[in-house]
Write a structure and sequence with these properties.
single chain, alpha/beta, four-stranded mixed β-sheet, two-stranded antiparallel ribbon, 8 strands
Length: 273
């Protein structure tokens, strides 16, 4: 992806080295509970104050490596690109795009949706309309998931921004409080579609390089529920899927990439995924 020397976003909050409380037994499960509670109109502070935590790591001076500096600059540029694309797409629909904030952190972080460790991976919190990412995920994506390349990481960021778009369009508030595994899959695949819409416009701005689309499709495949479960436990349990299969994630991202439009991404009104 052509990103060096281009403008980064001003909506980046750097909390690296600050530490944070993590919900005991929490992780993504505890995070989802708080997200749903928030969407139902509850005060996230009320539930957080009554959930046990594992304590807080003391803040330590954070020393950024050259590689981390490059990764931070990259995600800032990608975020700026999503801002430009979605502002224009929303304008064409007669809507106003509200830019999200991207929070950089290390190890653990506190959000309006609860506390989480970096083990949950990048996530979006509708309660504060912020994206959260530990940049170590860049290497995890390359090594653990075997999905190298800068556009693979760009896909991850665009997917989380897709969740922000869902929040602005009202999809999050409508679907998540009544979420089932099937609805969760549809919700995540819709975010993949929206990531593809962004990639379509990034290509139109001549930002993509040869092999970028393949990097994104490979990343989408690598984080499919079936691929992750097979790697972790040697077999898959389809009824426990929450994000979709590798084939589904690739297909919906590519569908958005070909379309470039909000139309066609409504997974909740389709008979088949």
């Amino acid at each position: 992806m052509k990103w060096q020397g281009r403008r980064g976003s001003s909506n980046v909050e750097d909390r690296r080295g600050m530490g944070g409380k993590t919900l005991a037994g929490g992780g993504i499960g505890g995070l989802i509970i708080v997200i749903i509670y928030t969407l139902l109109g509850g005060d996230p502070g009320a539930i957080l104050n009554n959930m046990p935590t594992t304590g807080s790591d003391p803040a330590v001076p954070y020393e950024e490596t050259a590689q981390e500096k490059e990764h931070a600059e990259f995600v800032s540029v990608v975020l700026a690109d999503t801002e430009k694309v979605w502002t224009e797409v929303f304008r064409e629909e007669g809507l106003v795009y509200k830019e999200p904030t991207l929070v950089l952190y290390t190890d653990s972080v506190q959000s309006a949706c609860g506390a989480a460790s970096s083990a949950v991976g990048p996530f979006y919190c509708p309660g504060d309309q912020k994206l959260y990412i530990d940049l170590s995920f860049y290497e995890e994506l390359r090594q653990k998931f075997e999905a190298p390349g800068d556009f693979a990481m760009a896909y991850v960021i665009a997917h989380e921004v897709g969740h922000h778009v869902q929040t602005l369009l009202g999809t999050t508030q409508k679907e998540m409080p009544h979420s089932s595994n099937e609805k969760s899959v549809r919700f995540e695949l819709q975010a993949d579609y929206l990531a593809g819409v962004w990639a379509h416009h990034a290509q139109g701005m001549d930002l993509l390089e040869e092999g970028d689309l393949e990097e994104a499709l490979n990343a989408a495949s690598a984080v499919g529920d079936d691929t992750i479960q097979k790697r972790a436990q040697g077999h898959v349990v389809p009824e426990s899927f929450t994000h979709g299969t590798s084939e589904q994630r690739k297909r919906w991202f590519y569908k958005g990439f070909k379309s470039g439009s909000l139309d066609g991404g409504d997974t909740f009104n389709t008979s088949g995924l």
